Amino acid sequence: MEASTNPPQPAPGRAAVIEISGLSTRFGDHVVHSGLDLEIRGGEIFALIGGSGSGKSTLLREMILLQQPDAGSIRVLGVDLHELSDQDALALRQRWGVMFQHGGLFGSLTVSENVGLPLREHTSLDAKLIDEIAAWKLSVSGLQPEVGAQFPSELSGGMMKRASLARALALDPELLFLDEPTAGLDPESAGEVDQLVRKLRDLFGLTIVMITHDLDLLWQLADRVAVLADGKVQGTGSMSELAQMDNPAVRKFFDGPRGRAAHDQSLVEPEAGARGTETFGSPPSKPK
Ligand SMILES: Nc1ncnc2c1ncn2[C@@H]1O[C@H](COP(=O)(O)OP(=O)(O)OP(=O)(O)O)[C@@H](O)[C@H]1O
Ligand SMILES: [Mg+2]
Asked: What is the pTM of this model?
């Protein structure tokens, strides 16, 4: 992968695509988010990081209308998610794509049928056109046309991620959510996913929101990163900016061996195949 000497930056002043303010979420007595604020701008690759249980996936689910917060407001693509009508929710869902951590493909459908599913659900296009669009999305996602006829169980982990991405792209979304896009992939496949994500942003101007523990994605790809801890966003900025912050919750990610390894790694061009496997989802040396 290329070194990030000159990473693409979102244009200054770009409109916010996601605006979250005063968000609170709790499950029973367990407070997950408490007065959380976050802004994601158009065209940026934005990453959410935080320890296990810090509420990243919950936040993602709230952004895509799979879960309701207890308080606060979330605006996505200019639309307030609170008390949306079914019709407005349906319209909004067509403007984003989601790649779930484990692919979320239906095992009983071929890859092509999986990719075409959102088109069958949300458009009145005929079957032949849907197949053609599915083939095009598979190709954009770096899969050969014959993969379309295969079933998810026949795919490798990397192919599964690509097929899932192809499905997320089916409706030409403006916004793409990726949950751990490289988790479980070998270094080569993970590197290919990096390049694919960058290509999607650069070619189609997509805004990309990802949850990841992958240091390469964070240092090489993310324009900005938000650190979640104690119910709030503790810091937001490029990885280099975060690395300079004094906030103890942010420091936890950069002090200790994994954080240092990550930073050192960002300063040198990684050797081919030398993708980092370290993560810093939780502090390195503290036993649970
Ligand atoms: N439906 C639910 N019912 C009860 N508790 C939940 C529910 N969903 C999430 N939680 C709790 O909320 C907290 C945040 O969960 P979440 O899945 O958002 O964490 P996360 O930051 O994504 O963690 P990880 O890195 O391990 O995936 C956890 O303590 C979890 O147990
Ligand atoms: Mg999670």
From this structure: 0.84
